[in-house]
Amino acid sequence: MDIVIIGASAAGLSCLDTLNKVAPGAVVTVVSGEPYPPYCRCLLSYYIGRSLTEAELTIKAPADLPRGVRFVGGRKAERIDTAGKTVRLEDGETLAYDKLLIATGAGAVKPPYCDEGKNCFVLRTMDDARKIAAAVKDRAVVAGGGFIGIKTAYGFIARNAAAEMVVASPYPLAMVLDEASGRHLEKDLAGLGLKITTGDDIAAVDFRNGRQQISLNSGRTIDSDVVVAGKGVRPDLALATTAGVKIGEGIAVDEHMETSVPDIFAAGDCCETYDPARSEPQIIGLWPAAAEQGYYAALNMAGYPSRYGGTVAMNSLKTSAFHLISAGVLKGDAGLTVYEKSVPARKQFRKIACRGDVPVGLAFYNCPEDAGLFVNLIRKAEPLTVDPQKAVNGEIAISDLMKPL
């Protein structure tokens, strides 16, 4: 059986590893448009912060891949011919497949001012990280207050550059956290030396004599070496479009990770899967979710029918001052009730959001214990049989809640 995997990040690599175990006789070709060995994309901010080297980000060297696996790097897949079951690469080479995985991921959103000629970048690839690291001297600005923006800003602080975040929202992580939690986070970020401007955004960037002057909507200007825009991502759907697969917000897949076109599967940031917290399909653009999807795709491609029940968006943000874990839905829904427990002396809080008696979201700050178990409760999408406040308070062992009713 000939299998082609387009994409060499979390979903593609997980699919490959699983196929090596369950279908060792398969002939697998992995296609990556990047000229680098597969690397951990979610740790690029650590490269900027000089905490990890490029070699330490590498996950697999092509020479270490099993026999029967071919790695094609630095050449993009250009078109899928579903009738002939082939993939055409940009240099004209054609790859035949019996099963195909589209794991093309997502690309960063680039605001109008984002011009690399003016030292304005996004952070999505190794090329991006290299350019940013080469451009920054002692000052940096990050546009956006999401997880990517905060991790990037922390990377600048780690390399002793003065960093400022410009956040259009009223507080950091406003799409995820309620205001009280966001303000708590904002205070601790400021304590790390990060300057935060909220309720404002970048209007334009001027670049002269190797230095930036950044103009904000408010009229304020900032001098900097580099701007990194962390304004979210969009799924890469170009190949899926040529294949004629069904597309919603991302590539639509069934519970076996198969698209509307037989023998073509999808996984990772380019596809949408069921989200138990929202009870609808969503793109869960996270490394663990992509790896999980790649695993299930591989099982089904290899002929072992396996149902993927979906996953919950979960993120972890750890610095020298705090550790935040969030998952699911914590705000923005009129039907939510939030239960919380705060320990100010330890700078800790735990919050759980429920829709009725069903847990759908959480935020744990400086108390990562039990967070994973709570996420599993959200994934189960089953009503709690105890008082949610007691669960948040720690009066009831979370492991007991995982037991069958």
What does it look like?
The structure is a single chain. The protein is an alpha/beta fold. The protein is about 25% helix and about 30% strand. The protein has eleven helices and 26 strands. α1 (about 10-20) packs parallel to α8. The radius of gyration is 22 Å and the shape is globular.
Give the tally of β-strands.
Answer: 26
The stretches of 5 or more residues where confidence is low (pLDDT under 50) are none
Instruction: Report helical residue fraction.
Output: 10-25%
**Which structural class best describes the helix and strand composition?**
alpha/beta
CA-CA gap between termini: 44 Å
Mean pLDDT: 93
* Main β-sheet, spatial strand arrangement: 3-2-1-7-19
Shape, principal axes of CA atoms: globular
For the biggest sheet, the summary is:
5 strands, parallel
The percentage of residues in β strands lies in 25-35%
Instruction: Note the total helix count.
Output: 11
Radius of gyration: 22 Å
Could you write a compact summary of the structure shown?
By secondary structure, this protein is α/β, with parallel strands linked by helices. The chain has helices at residues 10-22, 44-48, 54-57, 126-135, 147-158, 179-191, 238-243, 287-301, 371-380, 388-393, 398-401, and strands spanning 2-6, 27-32, 69-73, 77-81, 86-89, 94-96, 99-102, 106-108, 120-121, 139-143, 162-167, 195-198, 202-208, 211-216, 221-224, 226-229, 233-235, 251-252, 264-266, 271-275, 280-282, 314-318, 323-328, 336-343, 348-355, 358-365. A 5-stranded parallel sheet has the order 3-2-1-7-19, with helices on one face.
